[in-house]
Amino acid sequence: LAQLYGPLNSLGYIYRSINQSLVDTEKLMKLLDEHTDVNDKPDAKELVVEDGEIEFDNVTFSYDEGRSTALNSVSFKVPKGSKVALVGESGSGKSTVLRLLYRFYDLKEGNGRILIDGKDIRDVTQSSLRKAIGVVPQDSVLFNASISYNIGYGKFGASEEDIEAAAKAAQMHDRILTFPDGYDTKVGERGVRLSGGEKQRVAIARTLLKNPPILLLDEATSALDTTTEREIQVALENLVHGRSSLSIAHRLSTIASADIILVLKDGQIVESGSHSELLELNGIFASMWAKQITAEKHTDVGSTKEVAT
Ligand code: ATP
């Protein structure tokens, strides 16, 4: 997953970062290494998103010719403004769905289509596509700069008021006020170190400022302490509201509110429906759910602490 989020988190930001000369050079070089081989067509148009409806139409994809397929005839829709969650065991194809939507790879002719508002994403410019998509990874890249800069990064020329409003909606404002210099406090490797949950809230604040119609989310893998978990949930609800989103859910408890849950297995959608529909179906999702409930009962989630990284 890190392979996806390194570049996803950074590509949209690289151009401005260079201009503002505040980026950690070492990190930038690493990110530029992870370029993609996707090229815009000579007649590529700007993507204009009106509804933000996403459609995977019979998508088949393999990373290497002749190797097993990572996705096999996958079809689904994310209707305007709805929340779709992807679940499935490791290697089932969840990240591949997000990578393809962000266009790290193009589908070959005859292997299906990915559409946004009815437009094939291979026919639009990568820059306009990525401008329309916000990404919230589990672990965001922080720059060695002020917390204000790190949040304001989401929108060129963001005012202090914009930044504070985003931090409030992302449930990060009160925490920032405890820092020695408030919004001017330096964070990152050479400043105040933020925990995983705090970094995720910074990413949420950035994305709120970016204000994209489409969201890709990677929800936390491990249990956070209850307060942090609740804060992130509220922040995510503020972000997801009114946008079309695709989330990778590692812990099934976080996606009970999804409009549609897609269950992936070996690159195929094997079940889909709402949480209650899938429980009623009593199939793969229901057994994953039962297993996780039992596992969580045996874990003292309340005492789990976030690890500062
Ligand atoms: P996880 O929950 O562990 O992140 P996932 O459901 O997101 O897993 P994917 O990362 O989409 O799964 O992987 C789907 C399949 O594609 C797997 O068989 C995986 O080994 C393969 N795969 C993923 N990335 C690459 C890559 N860069 N090159 C070759 N094969 C890959």
TrEMBL record:
Signal sequence extent: none
Superkingdom of the organism of origin: Eukaryota
Compartmental location: Membrane
Domain ABC transporter: 54-291
Family according to the record: Belongs to the ABC transporter superfamily. ABCB family. Heavy Metal importer (TC 3.A.1.210) subfamily.
Protein name, as recorded: P-loop containing nucleoside triphosphate hydrolase protein
Species assigned in the record: Sistotremastrum suecicum HHB10207 ss-3
